[in-house]
Amino acid sequence: MLDETLGDPQCPPEVRELKDRVADFVRARVVPCERVLDSGGPDAARTLHRLRREAKEQGLWALPLPVELGGQGLGLRSYAHVAEAEGASDHGPAALGSASLLDALMLARHGSPRVRERYLAPLVAGELRASYAMTEQDAPGTDPFLTATRAAETEDGWRLTGDKWFVSGGDAADLVTVLARTDGQPPEREGLSLLLVPTASPGFRVVRELPVLGAAGQAEIALDGVAVDADHLIGERGKALAVAAERLQLGRTLRCLRWLGQAGRAFDLMRERAVTRSRSRSRGPLGELQLVQRHVFESLLALRTTRPLVHEAVSRLDAGADAHVEVGLAKVAAARTLQQVADAAIQVHGAAGLGPDTVLPALFRAGRAARILDGPDELHITSVARRVLRPERA
């Protein structure tokens, strides 16, 4: 990323060096392997294992994870700058060991002693992969009270029955945290709980892959009477939404940072194209065209105005303050920015921007999906507006 162009004035000098090291690792190590990593299968697994080993050798592994869990304890405000560089590739967080952050923090804070002892260290070390299953086909993620997946109490634990879809990484996960109804009936607001399910359990089944605009990474899963130990309840019975809200706030903010990194990558490609590509043999570069200059300006404006919104959300989360408004603003702005900048970069590239020779189709796809996944724009717009319009704010 061209930080001197895109600007990150809030990045402290002691973090700048680390951010640059991460950016170099992603650019030199991860990006050349993206096609292999996208393909899945044994080659992808071997490549990811090699990248993780190299990240550990370079001292870049699990930067934001707590030290007691095997990470490096980089604080959220500092990691926020690094996360943007790390997220320039979809595979950056997995290669650098930060992809487990949400699950590791959730299990450390809300898991039973046995769960923490059994899973935390392997999760942080990259030996286990975890996923989170909330959405159901007939129960939109915007209304979790319609959750129909049920966990029936047994003598020694729970028995889970139901279906989930758009489970990120669900087809390759070793553990899946499932939102299920332990009490009451939909759409009652009480009675929802979280249970940690080992995917090797009898009755756990990956129904199908769910490509997002043609790209892999999401799955539909079925839970056919899956037995879950009693101590695999995450948090208190019936209190799932409190744990989920804690996870979602941080998760959405981390995604925003990674979308900024991807938008910056699209901007770099657009800038390079505008500077080096000639309009014809007898004319100057594309960047001399005013319409191309407008694409560059509007993209830079979007990036520079979105980053402060995201870091404001980071600051409030780090301080333990209510960040619903800030996270909502950041989520909508970052998703729009990624889609806008990727679209502009494709336009400047012309037909080349539509083909397989650049990452731009994948970045545009990510931007479009971002406006729905993790809560559609409409949900965040309505939620923020309602909070701002409360009488006590008048």
Structural features, described:
The chain is of the alpha+beta class and 394 residues long. The protein has 3 domains: 3-106, Acyl-CoA dehydrogenase/oxidase, N-terminal domain (Butyryl-Coa Dehydrogenase, subunit A, domain 1); 130-234, Butyryl-CoA Dehydrogenase, subunit A, domain 2; 242-393, Butyryl-CoA Dehydrogenase, subunit A, domain 3. 50% of the residues lie in helices and 14% in strands. The chain has 13 helices and 8 strands. It has helices spanning 3-6, 13-30, 34-39, 41-57, 76-86, 92-96, 101-110, 113-124, 240-276, 290-318, 324-349, 360-370, 377-388; strands at residues 130-133, 150-154, 157-168, 175-181, 192-198, 204-209, 218-229, 233-234. The strands form 2 sheets. It has a 4-stranded mixed β-sheet with strand order 1-4-5-8. Helix 7 (101-110) packs antiparallel against helix 8 (113-124). It is globular.
What's the total helix number?
13
The secondary-structure element order is HHHHHHHHEEEEEEEEHHHHH
Distance N terminus to C terminus? 42 Å
Strand % is 5-15%
> What level of helicity do the residues show?
40-55%
CATH class of the largest domain: Mainly Alpha
SSE class: alpha+beta
Q: Might you state the CATH topology name of the largest domain? A: Butyryl-CoA Dehydrogenase, subunit A, domain 3
Mean pLDDT: 93
Largest pleated sheet: 4 strands, mixed
The counted number of beta strands is 8
CATH H-tier superfamily of the largest domain: Butyryl-CoA Dehydrogenase, subunit A, domain 3
- The strand order across the widest sheet is 1-4-5-8
Uncertain residue ranges: none
Shape: globular
Q: Taking Cα atoms only, what radius of gyration do you get, to the nearest Å?
A: 22 Å
Domain count, please report it. Answer: 3
Second CATH tier, the architecture of the largest domain? Up-down Bundle
Family: Belongs to the acyl-CoA dehydrogenase family.
Domain Acyl-CoA dehydrogenase/oxidase N-terminal: 13-127
Domain Acyl-CoA dehydrogenase/oxidase C-terminal: 242-389
Pfam family, one: Acyl-CoA_dh_1
